[in-house]
């Protein structure tokens, strides 16, 4: 006997055939949303920063939220902040290996693979995060000189960028009243250009990532560091002195996805990520600049002494550092890299030419 015939033989106050079919159809309809919900795209995002840092707050988290909203919940994220998925210097490798789908990476940690991005680290180039990032984005986005010469060759695509405010000098013990006080000081630097800057000022540059500074200064491995106020507050770095009003270079960062992963994404997801990236560029730099003064105030409240160099000292430092950009470009040219071309592109982008 068929199921249809069996159903016809049962009655509950009358034939239940249509009742059973209705229940069956309702059950099938109820399954539809579950099937749709299973079709989610879950992406792993990683960075080196504590949650309170401005990069997650103004860049990464708003980007993820906008992408999820724009795709009606289709794209979800597993977020691994504070080096939970890997060390700061290894985040590029995590992208290239497929362990992570998107990361915020500081190119200075891979200066052998991304040497041209060091142009953004040159001293005295920018006065604010927004000025720096407006310039950087023109070079880092698709079609830009750094995208073509540096990021595509490493198999990654930049979704948005960020530039720290001009870095300051912090000192664990020695007061830095002027450039001459840097002589012999062991100073943490994020990359090669800042190391060259310190060498010009007769200090000793020690390359290390941001999360390593706290322990290095606590143990006396370094005497100070070149770092903006925000990360100093975020990492809880202890210092007695910090400069104000100087510009020991900036630190660029890029939020990247591998080109291989990008090619696998549906077009509407790419569109959502691109639009969210444009928004993140604006919100990130605005948030960073807004907090710069607040972070300095926090440091003062913790007992850090702010040091402002005299006009004569600033003039002396500027004279020493004036040759850093040209020397960097010449060195890149000698290595077969278009250093002079990239430096020219940065200056033109910054000055609106």
Short description, anyone?
This protein is of the alpha/beta class and 353 residues long. Helix content is 48%, strand content 15%.
Description of the molecule:
- The protein has a six-stranded mixed sheet. Strands 2-1-3-10-4 form a five-stranded mixed sheet, with helices on both faces.
- 48% of the residues lie in helices and 15% in strands.
- The protein has two domains: 159 residues, D-Maltodextrin-Binding Protein, domain 2 (3-Layer(aba) Sandwich), CATH 3.40.190; 139 residues, 3-Layer(aba) Sandwich (D-Maltodextrin-Binding Protein, domain 2).
- The N terminus is likely disordered.
- It is built from 14 helices and eleven strands.
- It is of the alpha/beta class and 353 residues long.
- The protein is globular.
Q: Percent of residues in beta strands?
A: 15-25%
Radius of gyration: 27 Å
Strand order of the largest sheet: 7-6-8-5-9-11
| Total separate domains | 2
Structural class: alpha/beta
Biggest sheet, in brief?
A: 6 strands, mixed
Instruction: Write down the overall geometry.
Output: globular
H and E order = HHEHEHEHHEEEHEHEHEEHHEHHH
Poorly predicted parts = 1-37
The total count of helices amounts to 14
The CATH superfamily of the largest domain is: Bacterial extracellular solute-binding protein, family 7
Distance between the termini: 85 Å
CATH architecture of the largest domain: 3-Layer(aba) Sandwich
Indicate the CATH topology of the largest domain: D-Maltodextrin-Binding Protein, domain 2
What is the count of β-strands?
11
CATH class of the largest domain: Alpha Beta
The average pLDDT score comes to 89
Helical content stands at: 40-55%
